[in-house]
Amino acid sequence: MSVHLSGPCLPPSSSLPPIRRLISTSEEELTSALRKLQALYCPLRIPSSLSKPSVKREHIPVASTPIPADSGYASEDEDDDAPSEEEAKSQIVEDAAFILSSISGSSNDEGEEALTRDFTFSTSRGDSISITLNDAPLSGTDHTDVGLQSWGASIVLSSMICADPQRFNLASDSLPQQPTIIELGAGTGLVSLTLAKLLPEIGVERATFTATDYHSAVLENCKANVATNFPMTSGDQPPVDTMILDWSSPPSSLQSTADLLIASDVVYAPEHAVWLRDCAAHLLTPSGTFWLMVTVRKTGKFEGIPETVEAAFVPELCPKDGEGRVFGILERSCVEKRRGIGRGDETGYNLYRIGWA
């Protein structure tokens, strides 16, 4: 049997403009060409990194990301300015890098190994908080192991907390004497470790920190990161504890125990938002605060995730307690993406202040 093709079989790269025409190619044409390649090569893949493929124990310094004068917030009611030509070009470069990293960062790449990353965050006191983390390679087969790597939201949130702790009500006069702080979906533990180093410096003593996650391999990596940042002698206990936590079935022993809950980039499906809402309502004290940072992605598999969070917190669906309080969103702020931070499909972040009211 013979097969006759009606036209030539062209390679995927044929959708890209010739190099000699790059200078005259419009931004729309470049963006369209990249979208075609992304749909073909990485439609469902979570990007492992924007940087070049990792090599054995490569040390990646991460620059401090201080908050600008306007605190990095933009009201949700403000009109969005059209992106500048420089921003549009930067986005095209990031999109191309995402596609390249998705191809070269395959889980079958035997050269992909763990990375050590240094984070330095400027504080409101004029000094800095430094964190060293191990970022392990993703398995490529289990979507729940994304916590093996540090994502843009956790980096930006840690930076914001250090630069303006008052914005998050982190002070000795606004927290209980011995506050209980729990991170949900802690991943590498960046935010928990940042808080554990920052709070004693700003007068909040004797706080307890627990980094929780559902994935056992992620939690083991988190434990190693705690040990790296808080080396202890025999018999000492590190300030950050770790614990496996299933949002769909939180233990009764943790009910109304958390004075502060925090989570970043932990929602990847509509059911995640519902589980997270109910789990946080179970854990948080009546006067506590839950800070949730959600990554905004306008392309790919996780487009529209912020809308699932908003839908989960519709007032009539939110948990209520015996005192008539409703667990819901109290404030929402839009946070811009930082240059050089996060993956190529991230366009910004929504920061939610959630609690009982």
UniProtKB/TrEMBL annotation:
Parts forming coiled coils: none
Ranges where the record places region Disordered: 53-88
Q: Which InterPro entries match?
A: Methyltransf_16, SAM-dependent_MTases_sf
Residue ranges, compositional bias (Acidic residues): 75-85
First and last residue of the signal peptide: none
Q: Which domain of life is it from?
A: Eukaryota
**What GO annotations for molecular function exist for this entry?**
S-adenosylmethionine-dependent methyltransferase activity
Tell me the protein's name: S-adenosylmethionine-dependent methyltransferase
List the taxonomic lineage.
Eukaryota, Fungi, Dikarya, Ascomycota, Pezizomycotina
